[in-house]
Amino acid sequence: MKTNNGSKNRSHRDYRNSPHSSSGTLRTRETAGSFRITDLAEDERPRERLAEAGAAALSKAELLAILLRVGLPGENSVQLAQRILDELGGLSGIQRASVSEMCSIHGLGPAKAAQIKAAIELGSRLVREQLEERGAISSPAEAAQLLQLEMQGLPQENLVVLNLDTRNRLLSKETVYKGSLNLSLVRVGELFRSAIQKNAASIILAHNHPSGDPTPSPEDIALTRSVIQAGKLLDIELLDHIVIGNARYVSIKEKGLAFS
After folding, report:
1. Cβ–Cβ contacts within 10 Å for residue 184, how many?
2. Model confidence over 83-123: pLDDT tens digits?
3. Are residues 233 and 190 in the same domain?
4. Would you list the DSSP string of the chain?
5. CATH number at residue 70
6. What's the pTM?
7. Pick from 73, 105, 126: which residue ends a domain?
8. How many whole angstroms separate alpha carbon 90 and alpha carbon 252?
9. Which residue range(s) make up the domain with 180?
C-alpha cells in the first residue's frame, strides 16, 4: 500500500500538491418532395463546405444536416436540423434525450435519431479519451471535465470512483453504485475495492444529480465524511467528491464541506 503524506495543506482548488448558429439565410431550390442537401445552392451545401473549409467552419445545424441528409417539403435539411436543436435544447439536450423522445419531433425517425445519438456519443468518448491521455488530474475542473459529458444526462444517480496513483494519474474509472445515494444503502467499503486492487494512492468520488442541479445534499455530505474516515484507515485519501449537474458541477472540497 502506498503512503500519502503532506495532504493537510492542500489547496481546495488544486490537487497537484497531493503526494500521490445558426446557419444563416439559405438559398434553396424547391422540389415536389423532401428537401435534400443537393437542393441547397452549391456554396451552402454542408458536405462541400466541410470538405473545403473543415468541420470547424460549419454551424451545429450544418453538421447535423449532414447526418440528416434530407429535410421535409418546404424545410431543407439545415432548417430541419436547426429546429431539432431548438426543440431539444441544443447538443446537450440531444445527448440527454432518448431515441423515442427524439422521434416525437416531426421529420425525425428512429434510424436518423439513432445515427445522431451515435455521433454524439462518439464525440463524448473522444473527449474522455483525450482527457484520460493527458495524465494527472490536478484540479476539480479537470475531474469534472472527464466525467461531465458522460454523467450529466443519466436518468438516475451513478456513483463513480476515479482511482489515482501517487502522481494523481488515472489508474481506472469504476461505476460502483446506481440509484439514490443514501449512506444506509451505499457500502463504503465497496468504494475502495477497486482502489485496493489497483494499489491506488487516492481516489476522487463523483456522482450526478438527474435533476440537473449539482448542489450537494445532506446525504452527499454525510457520505463524503464517511468515505474520508474510511480512507484514513486504509491509507487511501479521498481527494474530492464532485457532484455533476447539467453543464455544471460542484466540488464538495472547494465548497469547504465535509473536508477539514
Report:
1. 7
2. 999 999 998 889 888 999 999 999 999 999 999 999 988 98
3. yes
4. -------TT--TT-STTS---------B---SS--BGGGB-GGG-HHHHHHHH-GGGS-HHHHHHHHH-B-BTTB-HHHHHHHHHHHHTHHHHHHHS-HHHHTTSTT--HHHHHHHHHHHHHHHHHHHHHHHHT-B--SHHHHHHHHHHHHTT-SS-EEEEEEE-TT-BEEEEEEEEES---TTTS-HHHHTHHHHHTT-SEEEEEEE-TTS--PPPHHHHHHHHHHHHHHHHHT-EEEEEEEE-SS-EEETTTTT-S--
5. 1.10.150
6. 0.63
7. 126
8. 29
9. 136-251
Same domain, 144 and 247: yes
Of 126, 151, 185, the residue at which a domain comes to its end is 126
Torsion angle (degrees, nearest 10) of CA 29, 106, 59, 117? -130
Amino acid at residue number 202: S
Query: Total structural domains in the chain?
Result: 2
User: CB-based contacts of 39: which residues, under 8 Å, 6+ apart?
Assistant: 28, 29, 30, 31, 71, 76
- Do 177 and 240 belong together in one domain? yes
Average pLDDT of the residues in 127-149 = 83
> Are 188 and 92 in the same domain?
no
> Region 3-13: what's the mean pLDDT?
46
35 and 77 Cβ atoms separated by less than 8 Å? yes
